[in-house]
Design brief:
The complex is a heterodimer. Chain A is an all-alpha fold. Chain A is 76% helix and 0% strand. Chain A has four helices and no strands. The C terminus of chain A is likely disordered. In chain B, helix 1 runs parallel beside helix 7. Chain B starts with a helix and ends in a 17-residue tail after the last helix. The chains are: A mainly alpha, B mainly alpha.
Chain lengths: 94, 191
Protein backbone atom coordinates (compact mmCIF):
# COMPACT_ATOMS: atom_id res chain seq x y z
CA UNK A 1 0.00 0.00 0.00
CA UNK A 2 1.37 3.37 -0.99
CA UNK A 3 2.15 5.91 1.70
CA UNK A 4 -0.25 8.77 1.87
CA UNK A 5 1.79 11.22 3.90
CA UNK A 6 5.33 11.92 4.91
CA UNK A 7 5.97 10.05 8.11
CA UNK A 8 7.02 11.66 11.35
CA UNK A 9 10.42 10.00 11.06
CA UNK A 10 10.78 11.46 7.60
CA UNK A 11 9.92 14.92 8.86
CA UNK A 12 12.37 14.65 11.74
CA UNK A 13 15.07 13.39 9.38
CA UNK A 14 14.50 16.22 6.89
CA UNK A 15 14.56 18.84 9.62
CA UNK A 16 17.65 17.25 11.14
CA UNK A 17 19.49 17.21 7.83
CA UNK A 18 18.60 20.85 7.25
CA UNK A 19 19.85 21.90 10.67
CA UNK A 20 22.99 19.81 10.23
CA UNK A 21 23.70 21.42 6.86
CA UNK A 22 23.21 24.84 8.42
CA UNK A 23 25.60 23.91 11.21
CA UNK A 24 28.25 22.69 8.79
CA UNK A 25 27.87 25.88 6.75
CA UNK A 26 28.21 28.01 9.86
CA UNK A 27 31.32 26.05 10.78
CA UNK A 28 32.88 26.68 7.40
CA UNK A 29 32.00 30.35 7.69
CA UNK A 30 33.62 30.55 11.08
CA UNK A 31 36.70 28.88 9.65
CA UNK A 32 36.90 31.47 6.90
CA UNK A 33 36.36 34.32 9.30
CA UNK A 34 38.01 36.93 7.13
CA UNK A 35 35.08 36.83 4.71
CA UNK A 36 32.66 37.64 7.49
CA UNK A 37 34.84 40.46 8.72
CA UNK A 38 35.37 41.99 5.33
CA UNK A 39 31.87 42.36 3.97
CA UNK A 40 30.16 44.60 6.53
CA UNK A 41 33.12 46.95 6.50
CA UNK A 42 32.79 47.59 2.78
CA UNK A 43 29.34 49.10 3.24
CA UNK A 44 30.57 51.75 5.56
CA UNK A 45 27.43 51.49 7.66
CA UNK A 46 28.47 48.93 10.16
CA UNK A 47 27.99 49.67 13.78
CA UNK A 48 30.67 50.72 16.12
CA UNK A 49 30.69 47.24 17.61
CA UNK A 50 32.38 45.96 14.49
CA UNK A 51 35.06 48.56 14.55
CA UNK A 52 37.49 46.25 16.24
CA UNK A 53 37.29 43.70 13.47
CA UNK A 54 36.96 46.21 10.66
CA UNK A 55 39.94 48.17 11.81
CA UNK A 56 42.11 45.58 10.17
CA UNK A 57 40.62 46.42 6.81
CA UNK A 58 39.77 50.06 7.14
CA UNK A 59 42.49 51.78 9.04
CA UNK A 60 43.48 55.25 8.04
CA UNK A 61 47.07 54.93 9.07
CA UNK A 62 48.25 51.58 7.82
CA UNK A 63 47.57 51.94 4.09
CA UNK A 64 48.84 55.50 3.98
CA UNK A 65 51.81 54.47 5.98
CA UNK A 66 52.55 51.65 3.62
CA UNK A 67 51.95 53.96 0.69
CA UNK A 68 54.30 56.44 2.13
CA UNK A 69 56.73 53.68 2.69
CA UNK A 70 56.36 52.52 -0.87
CA UNK A 71 56.35 55.87 -2.57
CA UNK A 72 59.66 57.14 -1.24
CA UNK A 73 61.43 53.99 -2.26
CA UNK A 74 60.16 54.47 -5.80
CA UNK A 75 60.21 58.23 -5.79
CA UNK A 76 63.61 58.35 -4.23
CA UNK A 77 64.96 56.08 -6.87
CA UNK A 78 63.22 58.05 -9.53
CA UNK A 79 64.40 61.33 -8.23
CA UNK A 80 67.84 59.93 -7.92
CA UNK A 81 67.72 58.72 -11.46
CA UNK A 82 66.41 62.09 -12.55
CA UNK A 83 69.41 63.80 -11.17
CA UNK A 84 71.80 61.39 -12.77
CA UNK A 85 70.48 61.88 -16.33
CA UNK A 86 70.68 65.58 -15.82
CA UNK A 87 74.21 65.17 -14.75
CA UNK A 88 74.84 62.88 -17.70
CA UNK A 89 73.08 65.31 -20.00
CA UNK A 90 75.16 68.07 -18.71
CA UNK A 91 78.17 65.92 -19.05
CA UNK A 92 77.15 64.81 -22.53
CA UNK A 93 76.10 68.30 -23.48
CA UNK A 94 79.31 69.78 -22.47
CA UNK B 1 33.26 32.93 16.83
CA UNK B 2 31.03 33.78 19.77
CA UNK B 3 30.84 37.46 18.89
CA UNK B 4 29.70 36.67 15.36
CA UNK B 5 27.43 33.76 16.28
CA UNK B 6 24.22 35.35 15.01
CA UNK B 7 25.97 36.53 11.88
CA UNK B 8 26.93 32.97 11.04
CA UNK B 9 23.44 31.74 11.93
CA UNK B 10 21.90 34.36 9.64
CA UNK B 11 24.11 33.46 6.71
CA UNK B 12 23.82 29.69 7.14
CA UNK B 13 20.06 29.75 7.64
CA UNK B 14 19.67 31.96 4.58
CA UNK B 15 21.63 29.55 2.44
CA UNK B 16 19.65 26.56 3.74
CA UNK B 17 16.37 28.43 3.22
CA UNK B 18 17.35 29.10 -0.38
CA UNK B 19 18.19 25.43 -0.86
CA UNK B 20 14.87 24.41 0.63
CA UNK B 21 12.99 26.79 -1.67
CA UNK B 22 14.80 25.27 -4.65
CA UNK B 23 14.07 21.76 -3.40
CA UNK B 24 10.42 22.55 -2.77
CA UNK B 25 9.94 24.09 -6.21
CA UNK B 26 11.67 21.14 -7.85
CA UNK B 27 9.63 18.66 -5.83
CA UNK B 28 6.44 20.52 -6.68
CA UNK B 29 7.29 20.31 -10.36
CA UNK B 30 7.96 16.60 -10.06
CA UNK B 31 4.61 16.21 -8.34
CA UNK B 32 2.70 18.34 -10.84
CA UNK B 33 4.19 16.53 -13.80
CA UNK B 34 3.45 13.15 -12.23
CA UNK B 35 7.00 12.19 -12.99
CA UNK B 36 7.12 9.07 -10.88
CA UNK B 37 3.64 7.88 -11.73
CA UNK B 38 1.95 6.20 -8.81
CA UNK B 39 5.01 5.14 -6.84
CA UNK B 40 5.55 7.07 -4.67
CA UNK B 41 1.97 8.15 -4.41
CA UNK B 42 1.00 11.68 -5.45
CA UNK B 43 -0.29 12.30 -1.93
CA UNK B 44 3.12 11.46 -0.47
CA UNK B 45 4.83 13.66 -3.06
CA UNK B 46 2.51 16.51 -2.14
CA UNK B 47 3.19 15.93 1.54
CA UNK B 48 6.95 16.18 1.00
CA UNK B 49 6.47 19.29 -1.13
CA UNK B 50 4.46 20.95 1.62
CA UNK B 51 6.93 19.96 4.31
CA UNK B 52 9.89 21.35 2.33
CA UNK B 53 8.00 24.62 1.95
CA UNK B 54 7.25 24.73 5.66
CA UNK B 55 10.92 24.06 6.44
CA UNK B 56 11.92 26.86 4.06
CA UNK B 57 9.59 29.23 5.86
CA UNK B 58 11.01 28.19 9.21
CA UNK B 59 14.57 28.82 8.06
CA UNK B 60 13.55 32.20 6.64
CA UNK B 61 12.19 33.04 10.09
CA UNK B 62 15.49 31.96 11.65
CA UNK B 63 17.32 34.02 9.03
CA UNK B 64 15.36 37.17 9.89
CA UNK B 65 15.55 36.68 13.66
CA UNK B 66 19.29 36.04 13.48
CA UNK B 67 19.82 39.22 11.44
CA UNK B 68 17.87 41.19 14.04
CA UNK B 69 19.81 39.60 16.89
CA UNK B 70 23.15 40.14 15.24
CA UNK B 71 25.18 43.15 16.23
CA UNK B 72 27.79 42.77 13.52
CA UNK B 73 25.57 44.44 10.91
CA UNK B 74 23.09 46.78 12.51
CA UNK B 75 19.61 45.88 11.24
CA UNK B 76 16.36 47.11 12.73
CA UNK B 77 12.87 45.71 12.40
CA UNK B 78 12.00 48.14 9.62
CA UNK B 79 15.18 47.22 7.77
CA UNK B 80 14.11 43.58 7.44
CA UNK B 81 10.41 44.21 6.84
CA UNK B 82 10.26 47.23 4.54
CA UNK B 83 12.10 47.17 1.21
CA UNK B 84 14.66 49.87 0.48
CA UNK B 85 14.80 51.07 4.07
CA UNK B 86 18.03 49.32 4.95
CA UNK B 87 21.17 51.33 4.48
CA UNK B 88 23.19 48.16 3.90
CA UNK B 89 22.77 47.24 0.20
CA UNK B 90 19.11 48.36 0.12
CA UNK B 91 18.27 46.90 -3.28
CA UNK B 92 19.90 43.56 -2.55
CA UNK B 93 18.07 43.30 0.77
CA UNK B 94 14.81 44.36 -0.89
CA UNK B 95 14.92 41.27 -3.14
CA UNK B 96 14.92 39.10 -0.06
CA UNK B 97 12.17 41.05 1.69
CA UNK B 98 9.87 40.86 -1.32
CA UNK B 99 10.75 37.17 -1.67
CA UNK B 100 9.78 36.60 1.95
CA UNK B 101 6.37 38.16 1.36
CA UNK B 102 5.86 36.14 -1.81
CA UNK B 103 6.73 33.00 0.15
CA UNK B 104 4.16 33.94 2.80
CA UNK B 105 1.52 34.50 0.12
CA UNK B 106 2.25 31.18 -1.58
CA UNK B 107 2.25 29.34 1.75
CA UNK B 108 -0.91 31.06 2.96
CA UNK B 109 -2.87 30.41 -0.19
CA UNK B 110 -1.74 26.79 -0.15
CA UNK B 111 -2.98 26.34 3.39
CA UNK B 112 -6.31 27.91 2.39
CA UNK B 113 -6.48 26.10 -0.89
CA UNK B 114 -9.84 24.50 -0.23
CA UNK B 115 -11.34 27.95 0.31
CA UNK B 116 -10.02 29.35 -2.95
CA UNK B 117 -11.02 28.67 -6.49
CA UNK B 118 -8.56 26.48 -8.40
CA UNK B 119 -7.86 29.29 -10.78
CA UNK B 120 -6.93 31.73 -8.03
CA UNK B 121 -4.82 29.16 -6.23
CA UNK B 122 -3.00 28.12 -9.37
CA UNK B 123 -2.33 31.71 -10.36
CA UNK B 124 -0.98 32.48 -6.91
CA UNK B 125 1.07 29.31 -6.81
CA UNK B 126 2.76 30.31 -10.04
CA UNK B 127 4.40 33.04 -7.99
CA UNK B 128 6.72 30.28 -6.79
CA UNK B 129 8.81 30.82 -9.89
CA UNK B 130 9.03 34.52 -9.09
CA UNK B 131 9.96 33.56 -5.54
CA UNK B 132 12.74 31.30 -6.78
CA UNK B 133 14.14 34.12 -8.92
CA UNK B 134 13.86 36.66 -6.11
CA UNK B 135 15.66 34.58 -3.49
CA UNK B 136 18.38 33.60 -5.96
CA UNK B 137 19.01 37.25 -6.82
CA UNK B 138 18.99 38.03 -3.09
CA UNK B 139 21.54 35.26 -2.48
CA UNK B 140 23.86 36.49 -5.20
CA UNK B 141 23.42 40.21 -4.52
CA UNK B 142 23.20 40.46 -0.75
CA UNK B 143 24.75 37.21 0.35
CA UNK B 144 28.22 37.83 1.62
CA UNK B 145 29.11 34.33 0.51
CA UNK B 146 28.27 35.17 -3.09
CA UNK B 147 31.84 36.33 -3.50
CA UNK B 148 32.95 32.80 -2.91
CA UNK B 149 33.13 30.69 -5.99
CA UNK B 150 31.31 27.64 -4.70
CA UNK B 151 27.89 29.19 -3.91
CA UNK B 152 27.87 31.15 -7.14
CA UNK B 153 28.75 28.17 -9.25
CA UNK B 154 26.28 26.05 -7.31
CA UNK B 155 23.50 28.58 -7.84
CA UNK B 156 24.14 28.70 -11.55
CA UNK B 157 24.40 24.93 -11.87
CA UNK B 158 21.24 24.33 -9.84
CA UNK B 159 19.37 26.91 -11.87
CA UNK B 160 20.52 25.38 -15.13
CA UNK B 161 19.77 21.88 -13.88
CA UNK B 162 16.31 22.91 -12.72
CA UNK B 163 15.37 24.57 -15.99
CA UNK B 164 16.94 21.85 -18.10
CA UNK B 165 15.42 19.11 -15.95
CA UNK B 166 11.98 20.64 -16.10
CA UNK B 167 12.19 20.96 -19.85
CA UNK B 168 13.27 17.33 -20.10
CA UNK B 169 10.48 16.20 -17.79
CA UNK B 170 7.92 18.20 -19.70
CA UNK B 171 9.13 16.72 -22.96
CA UNK B 172 9.10 13.26 -21.50
CA UNK B 173 5.63 13.62 -20.03
CA UNK B 174 4.09 15.06 -23.18
CA UNK B 175 5.81 12.68 -25.57
CA UNK B 176 3.55 10.14 -27.28
CA UNK B 177 3.82 6.69 -25.77
CA UNK B 178 3.29 3.22 -26.97
CA UNK B 179 -0.28 2.06 -26.49
CA UNK B 180 -0.92 -0.09 -23.48
CA UNK B 181 -2.19 -3.57 -23.94
CA UNK B 182 -4.54 -3.68 -20.97
CA UNK B 183 -4.69 -0.17 -19.63
CA UNK B 184 -8.37 0.45 -20.16
CA UNK B 185 -7.61 3.94 -21.50
CA UNK B 186 -5.21 2.89 -24.22
CA UNK B 187 -5.91 2.92 -27.88
CA UNK B 188 -5.39 -0.78 -28.24
CA UNK B 189 -6.92 -3.34 -25.97
CA UNK B 190 -7.13 -7.05 -26.12
CA UNK B 191 -10.76 -7.05 -25.27
Amino acid sequence: MARRKLSVQGKVAAAGVSVAVAGVLAGFMAAGDHHADATPTSSGTSSSSSSSSSSVLDPSSTPSGSDRGATPSLGGGTSGSQYQPQAQTRTGGS
Amino acid sequence: MASHFWWYVARASGLVAWGLVVASCTWGLLHALRTFGRRPSPAWMLSVHRYLSALALAFVAVHVVAILADGFVDFGVADVLVPMVSTWHPLAVAWGIVGMYVLLVVEGTSLARHRLSPRVWRGTHMLSYVLLALVTIHLLAAGTDANDLLPTVSAVLIGVATVFGCAMLLTWRTAPRAPRVSGGRGLVTNR
